[in-house]
Amino acid sequence: MLQYLDENQLSPPYILVAHSYGGTFARLFLEQRPHQVAGMVLVETGQETAIDPDIEQRQYKTQVLGGKPLAVIRGNTLIAKWKQYQQALAVAGDAPNPTLIIQKQLLDATDKEDERLKRAQLQLSRNNRYIHIPDCGHGVIQHRPDAVKEAVCWVMENQQTQNGEKQKNESQEYEEQGSENVVKKSIRARLREAKKMPLVGNITRLLGR
Fold first, then answer.
1. Are the beta carbons of 155 and 39 closer than 8 angstroms?
2. Tens digits of per-residue pLDDT, 169-189?
3. Which terminus, N or C, of the chain has the lesser number of Cβ atoms within 10 Å?
């Protein structure tokens, strides 16, 4: 990625948008060139173990992004497993079923650990937003691109604020209710506003026009 950016003369600063295993590469990029990163959107990342544990903990401890905006999106990785459990539960009815009891305990424990890993990433920045989309599985980018676009817009808008007189340092949390879009401004309108920023030179091409 570093070679591609350099060879194609795509100058910084960059907003890094990563999904799943791509989070490892985004974190390694952040480690090598933190001064070139203007913000991050991490989509269903955090369960990877490829990143050096020392690097991971150092980035958390130092809050490597400082006040730069960070959005962490968590889907429902176990959504298919939960559906299977509900179907089996309906078939079993009121009859005692130790297997289903154990299955639910495992699902609850796994879900809790997944949430812990996602929330841990918020330590990268003191200006962060946590977004939970319970009706979507791991493929958030494919199934809920609107949520990803909204997160990218928030990072872009927040970066614009930082470049001005006021800098916001805050944590925000959002739990989506179904797939309803509650954004007051349209994504297209917000991108038009964000394009005024020198920061977004190339990223808007990825989001559509």
1. yes
2. 677 777 765 444 444 455 556
3. C
